[in-house]
Amino acid sequence: MRLEFLGTDSRDGDCPTLYRTDRGTIVVQGYKVTDPEALADLRDLADDETVVEIPEKLLRFARKEGSP
Fold first, then answer.
1. How far apart are CA 60 and CA 57, in angstroms?
2. CA–CA separation, 7 vs 34, rounded Å?
3. Are residues 3 and 26 in contact, defined by beta-carbon separation less than 8 angstroms?
4. CA 33, CA 36: separation in Å to the nearest integer?
5. What is the rounded radius of gyration, in angstroms, for the C-alpha atoms of the chain?
């Protein structure tokens, strides 16, 4: 899998960051969610999955060029 950098709001090169893959998916670099109450609210989290938290404004980088 190859990643294409889409954008970040980081000033120091740290996370959160969004990438597009050559598989047609998005990779999210964010803050690992460890809060037990938040994890208990998740549905169907498989053993090989995890969740990360990012600022909502970062999602603007996920839009493909030419889409609204």
1. 6
2. 25
3. no
4. 9
5. 14
Q: What gap in Å lies between CA 32 and CA 21, rounded to an integer?
A: 21
Q: Are 27 and 21 in contact (CB under 8 A)?
A: yes
Residue pointed to by tokens 């998005």:
26
pLDDT single digits (tens) 2-25: 999 999 987 776 779 999 999 999
CA separation for the pair 56, 50 (Å, rounded)? 18
Which pair of structure tokens corresponds to residue 18?
Answer: 């969004």
pTM of the model: 0.76
- In terms of C-beta density within 10 A (0-12 exposed, 13-18 middle, 19 or more buried), how is residue 9 classed? middle
Residue 35, helix vs strand vs coil:
coil
